[in-house]
């Protein structure tokens, strides 16, 4: 039975990958991606993103657990899965003497039901470079050629490994727009990225990997909300930290000072900010350089990576 739009197009359960020598790069992870969803895998260097994506692409068998793509085992049943997926690897590795048009035509010849090569180049904005040799392309243009080739087979599932590395801000935004348009057309997209802004802008849901395990998962808003908000301000002249209302009563879960600057962390932003402002009003003082902000995905990422490092020993998946 083919999956419909409500079913999971990618399902990963207790997935493990062990390299020769016994190093366990993926340590029992699980997630699921619905049809027409953009799912991002984030993580520090060496967290296991590429190792995971390669298992999803069927390039290697897992050491444990289960992967299903479009209802099939992508390694054992590669012939069923491969024609319906598009893969953009970190390094395309094309013959560098061929032109962009020749490379795209050659690739299209290997794909059944391929889109016209010109259409794939148009999607990624490379039509004007059709006659340029691959070796003369800029790094960003090569990434776009990688993407054009991944799109040739009109894939139902698209794997993008760091798709915008090397692209300038405009190229990155163009790629985001294209990926969103593909998603809106029903394509399921799994991407890895180092750019938190990319995940925040593009991903419907994401997972943060750390040392082979999932440290956090959910929508960008859910993952961000798991981290404390921040308040910072300058202590008014003549006042000390102890003059503020008791921080625990304000819902503050952590604080530090740097000269006159006070930085607070709280999971109850409104309560903490209100308490401080009421105190300042009553004391008749101004909280100079007051800055009140929710955590960004970047702060969440750094916080999660830090926490995961500290607690990885007792972490239970
Ligand atoms: N063939 C291999 N043999 C042994 N160890 C490997 C092999 N390939 C990857 N590793 C190790 O597995 C871990 C995960 O690597 P992986 O490339 O999956 O991480 P990543 O999250 O994609 O990292 P990056 O963000 O740096 O691309 C790393 O510690 C890496 O050194």
UniProtKB/TrEMBL annotation:
Source organism superkingdom? Bacteria
Protein name stated in the entry:
ABC transporter ATP-binding protein
Query: Which terms are listed as keywords in the entry?
Result: Antibiotic resistance, ATP-binding, Nucleotide-binding, Transport
Q: Does the keyword Cytoplasm apply?
A: no
The membrane-topology field of this record reads: Peripheral membrane protein
Q: Where in the cell is it found?
A: Cell membrane
Alphabetical list of Pfam families matching this protein: ABC_tran
InterPro entries per UniProt: AAA+_ATPase (IPR003593), ABC_transporter-like_ATP-bd (IPR003439), ABC_transporter-like_CS (IPR017871), ABC_transporter_ATP-binding (IPR050763), P-loop_NTPase (IPR027417)
Sample GO molecular function, one term: ATP binding
Q: Enumerate the spans annotated as ABC transporter domain.
A: 10-236
Task: Using the UniProt record, give the first listed, main subcellular location.
Answer: membrane
Its transmembrane ranges are none
């Amino acid at each position: 039975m083919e999956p419909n739009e409500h079913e999971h197009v990618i399902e990963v359960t207790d997935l493990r990958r062990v390299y020769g020598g016994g190093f366990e790069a993926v340590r029992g992870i699980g997630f699921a991606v619905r049809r027409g969803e953009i799912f991002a895998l984030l993580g520090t260097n060496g967290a296991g993103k590429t190792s995971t994506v390669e298992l999803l692409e069927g390039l290697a068998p897992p050491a444990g657990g289960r992967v299903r793509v479009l209802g099939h085992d992508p390694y054992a049943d590669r012939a069923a899965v491969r024609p319906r997926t598009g893969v953009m690897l970190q390094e395309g590795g094309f013959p560098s003497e061929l032109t962009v048009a020749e490379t795209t035509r050659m690739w299209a010849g290997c794909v059944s039901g391929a889109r016209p090569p010109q259409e794939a180049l148009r999607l990624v904005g490379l039509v004007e470079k059709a006659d340029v040799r691959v070796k003369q392309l800029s790094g960003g243009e090569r990434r776009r050629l990688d993407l054009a080739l991944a799109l040739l087979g009109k894939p139902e599932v698209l794997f993008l490994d760091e798709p915008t590395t090397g692209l300038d801000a405009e190229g990155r935004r163009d790629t985001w727009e294209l990926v969103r348009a593909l998603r809106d057309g029903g394509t399921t997209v799994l991407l890895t990225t180092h750019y938190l802004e990319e995940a925040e802008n593009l991903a419907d849901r994401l997972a943060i990997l750390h040392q082979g395990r999932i440290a956090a998962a959910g929508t960008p808003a859910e993952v961000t909300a798991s981290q404390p908000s921040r308040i910072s301000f300058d202590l008014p002249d003549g006042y000390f930290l102890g003059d503020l209302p008791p921080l625990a009563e304000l819902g503050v879960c952590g604080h530090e000072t740097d000269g006159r600057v006070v930085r607070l962390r709280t999971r109850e932003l409104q309560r903490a900010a209100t308490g401080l402002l009421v105190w300042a009003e009553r004391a008749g003082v101004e909280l100079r350089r007051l800055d009140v902000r929710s955590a960004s995905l970047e702060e969440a990422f750094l916080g999660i990576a830090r926490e995961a490092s500290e607690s990885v020993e007792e972490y239970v998946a």
